[in-house]
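Translate structure to sequence.
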């Protein structure tokens, strides 16, 4: 009898944790994703990306505004530039990084299983994963710098297209007769 009870207790004590253990193909839990985001230093990566975006946006605005401010004095252009810098600082300050991280959790849960998230955590703790984490801000900044001339050119082309279409539209609107305008008599 004692042996049977001992066997049952042993079986239950070994089986219970297995019943509650997650299998590799189970969906990733919130805790899984949070651990993976922590291992990947996601908060630091988001901060770094926002800083890079701020710098790149400012450079793009500076380039785009050169044509708009060409007729202004140097002092006026400097004031415009300072104004834009202040606006960019305001735009990118106080980003709710915690909320951004929270928004990422269900996305990761949708695409990764428990086992895959565990493998990602292991990767981020590996030497290559650590190198990737350390280099990612520089790689992102360098990629954005490499893309900046292309993005600037495309933005200028698109801005010109919109301005041209707006001028055509305004001409069309001005040439149309207002419904309340009396028709001119010949």
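Result:
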């Amino acid at each position: 009898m004692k042996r049977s009870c001992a066997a049952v207790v042993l079986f239950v004590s070994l089986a219970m944790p297995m019943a509650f253990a997650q299998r590799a193909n189970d969906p990733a839990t919130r805790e899984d994703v949070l651990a993976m985001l922590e291992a990947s230093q996601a908060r630091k990566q988001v901060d770094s990306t926002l800083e890079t975006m701020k710098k790149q946006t400012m450079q793009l605005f500076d380039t785009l505004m050169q044509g708009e401010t060409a007729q202004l004095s140097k002092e006026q252009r400097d004031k415009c530039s300072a104004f834009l810098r202040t606006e960019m600082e305001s735009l990118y300050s106080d980003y709710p990084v915690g909320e951004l991280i929270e928004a990422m959790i269900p996305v990761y849960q949708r695409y990764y299983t428990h086992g895959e998230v565990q493998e990602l955590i292991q990767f981020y703790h590996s030497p290559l994963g650590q190198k990737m984490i350390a280099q990612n801000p520089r790689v992102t900044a360098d990629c954005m710098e490499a893309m900046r001339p292309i993005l600037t050119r495309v933005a200028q082309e698109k801005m010109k297209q919109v301005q041209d279409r707006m001028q055509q539209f305004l001409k069309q609107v001005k040439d149309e007769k207002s419904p309340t305008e009396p028709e001119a008599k010949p």
